[in-house]
Write a structure and sequence with these properties.
alpha/beta; molybdenum cofactor biosynthesis; Cytidine_deaminase-like; 4-stranded mixed β-sheet; globular; single chain; 6-stranded mixed β-sheet
Length: 260
């Protein structure tokens, strides 16, 4: 979403500039707030589903309803869970002792922050042609970036087909959650284990955790990963590549067998 405002120049004239919309979004489950994030208020149902899954709160079939409500200070993203998931969420809330924030939302221990990831078993091999095609398609598809220069993007590459989904947001975690929700809610959910997540941002450990929870076997980014991200990808069986401005410049950090 884009906002427009006037900017005064040195000669006291004014021009219209486009800015990426950013607001506070409170994510709540069954009436209890789990996290408050700064995000672009678009694709909010995708955001609700993706956040719920990648944060380990609920599966898609355990979400009963999603209701984004505009309030004076932002958006109240209300998520209603089925009975079993709701009870798990209550138990999780009782164990929380610290504040929540962006990236590792609702995590209160070092063990939870560096949680062990189940191995990703999907079958995906990315070729140089696949990667170059996805990068070119992502570059053309980022409307929010083109209008404002202030957003991240997350896309999903299916080898042999190219980019099949993309979401943008002012936050890199939010962009990945929105992409995850779009995939999980659509007909392409069955293809998640056969493709790669492509990010315009750097790769931190929490992004690897989200990709692993989603079930994506490959993660590629335009920037570099952190040491913790590489270790997490190695442990989870995720092929990890960074600095991927083009296929011949990409650097592979984990599971090179995922790349031809």
């Amino acid at each position: 979403m884009i906002a427009t405002r006037a900017q005064r120049l040195a000669d006291r004239s004014e021009i219209g500039v486009s800015l990426a919309e950013e607001c506070a979004i409170a994510i709540s489950y069954d009436g209890t707030t789990q996290a408050v994030l700064m995000a672009t208020p678009a694709d909010l149902e995708d955001f609700a589903y993706g956040f719920s899954v990648t944060e380990g709160i609920a599966r898609p079939d355990e979400i009963e309803a999603v209701q984004p409500v505009r309030v004076d200070l932002g958006v109240d993203l209300r998520i209603w869970l089925r009975r079993d998931a709701g009870q798990r969420f209550i138990g999780r809330r009782r164990r929380m002792v610290g504040p929540v924030g962006c990236g590792l939302c609702g995590v209160d221990t070092l063990t939870a922050a560096m949680r062990e990831l189940a191995p990703v078993e999907g079958d995906c091999t990315v070729t140089p042609a696949d990667l170059d095609l996805a990068l070119a398609q992502m570059d053309k598809a980022q409307q929010l970036r083109d209008a404002t220069g202030a957003s991240h993007a997350a896309g999903f590459l299916l080898p042999g087909r190219g980019l099949i989904a993309l979401r943008e947001d002012v936050g890199r975690h939010n962009a990945l959650d929105k992409l995850s929700g779009a995939l999980l809610r659509g007909e392409d959910a069955r293809l998640i284990g056969q493709g790669a997540v492509v990010l315009t941002s750097r790769i931190s450990v929490d992004l690897v955790q989200k990709a692993a929870t989603l079930g994506a076997p490959v993660l590629i980014a335009l920037a570099a990963p952190t040491s913790a991200a590489v270790a997490a990808a190695e442990a989870a069986g995720i092929g990890l590549a960074g600095r991927a401005r083009s296929a011949d410049r990409a650097e592979i950090y984990a599971h090179p067998e995922r790349f031809s």
